[in-house]
Amino acid sequence: MEDDDIFKTCPQHTISWLKGNITMYKYLGFWNIKSFHEGTILAQKCFKAEPSDVLVSSCPKTGTTWLKALAFAIVTRDKFDESTTPLLTTMPHDCIPLLEHDLKKVEDNHKNSGFPLVATHLPYSSLPESLVASDCKIVYIYRNVKDVIVSHYRFLQEATKLSVDDAPFEAAFDDFCQGISWCGPYWDHILGYWKASHERPGRILFLKYEDMKRDPRNNVKRLAEFIGYPFSIEEEKAGVVENIIKLCSFENMSNLEVNKSGTHRPEEEDIAIENRLYFRKAKDGDWENYFTEEMKEKIDKLIDEKLSGTGLVLK
Ligand SMILES: Nc1ncnc2c1ncn2[C@@H]1O[C@H](COP(=O)(O)OS(=O)(=O)O)[C@@H](OP(=O)(O)O)[C@H]1O
Known about the structure:
Blueprint: H1 3-9, E1 12-14, E2 23-27, E3 30-32, H2 34-46, E4 54-58, H3 64-75, H4 92-95, H5 103-113, E5 117-120, H6 129-133, E6 137-142, H7 145-159, H8 169-177, H9 186-199, E7 204-208, H10 209-214, H11 216-226, H12 233-237, H13 240-248, H14 250-254, H15 257-261, E8 263-264, E9 273-274, H16 293-307
Parallel strand pairs: 4-5, 4-6, 6-7
Antiparallel strand pairs: 1-2, 2-3, 8-9
Helix pairs in contact: 3-13
The structure holds 3'-phosphate-adenosine-5'-phosphate sulfate.
3'-phosphate-adenosine-5'-phosphate sulfate binds at residues 58, 60-66, 69, 147, 151, 154-155, 248-250, 253, 278-282, 286.
């Protein structure tokens, strides 16, 4: 089937709380805008994984930007230090190519640079076959569902330049609960990777946003070790772990000029986003400022049902 025919026949949803500014399509079980689905199809057809690839994966609004910054700083620390790293002048999303959008850049890296990091928001079931069949390492970050709902809502509301009053949170919450969110259903996205991690132990590292905030040192060390760039004893003594944590901290990143005034993908009208929108509050529990008691009960019940027996906690 031609790509255009696929999108004529698959379910679509024009987001009412964004005044119809965004239409999402449900393809292979997950919601996204058309251009990212098209990029997915291309990656599925063409991408050939290399054993050295390290996939940095997430559902949007779960800590992707932070994880990308950390992974980039870890992998490039032999080349750059805190005063020379590209992270000072380039926003983290522009430091790691996105599989479903920047395939050519990923392929160039394979040929020319040996840079191992590849980012994706793809659900596990949509990953290109060669990647699933390979032994590439996958790092997956996730976050409590209530803060993801608020982060998702505020990001799209700001990106579409609507005021909070013009974009009712209740409708955004209802869509999310129906699974209609960027790369949603959120629970299915996580469960795909979670189940795969049990089928292939040692292949997928799960990092929880809240755990990383509570204990960045241990989690950054786990990350570095897992992706094959462990810190030496000398590096630890010299404070390299702490320096990377500080460099990638919300406080530091959100105050860099590039992240205050730059734009991500400025040349692409449909997805150009001001960098500052990727750095909002980074507070655990901001959901309490948005949720009614009823909403809290509804999402807790839904997540209990969806994750029952899996061992995952998303509250
Ligand atoms: N460095 C750092 N440390 C901790 N937290 C950070 C950092 N950078 C971004 N953020 C917060 O992450 C939330 C955005 O999630 P994502 O980066 O996954 O968004 S996206 O998928 O890339 O659009 C969003 O959370 P909310 O503030 O709750 O909306 C960002 O503020």
